[in-house]
From TrEMBL:
GO terms for biological process: rRNA base methylation; tRNA methylation. Its cofactor is [4Fe-4S] cluster. This is 23S rRNA (Adenine(2503)-C(2))-methyltransferase RlmN. Transmembrane segments: none annotated. Keywords: 4Fe-4S, Iron, Iron-sulfur, Metal-binding, Methyltransferase, Transferase. It comes from the Bacteria. InterPro entries: Aldolase_TIM (IPR013785), Methyltransferase_A (IPR040072).
């Protein structure tokens, strides 16, 4: 829905984890919108608005800093 509102702003997405299991513990709202839904919505916003998005990822030692 955000993409259809016509806002003139850059969207920042707080990802912090590449998978839902870890993101559930770091970002509690992930239980409502999972990683795939958030990224799909962000790309849709970028396509519709022509604006860039920012993916935020805070590295936490021994938690989300390994592949």
């Amino acid at each position: 829905r955000f993409a259809d509102e016509g806002f003139k702003c850059r969207l920042a997405v707080s990802l912090h984890a590449p998978d839902d299991e870890l993101r559930d513990t770091l970002v509690p709202v992930n239980t409502r919108w999972n990683v795939r839904e958030v990224l799909d919505a962000a790309w849709e916003y970028a396509e519709k608005s022509g604006r860039r998005i920012s993916i935020e990822y805070a590295l936490i030692r021994d938690i989300n800093d390994q592949a």
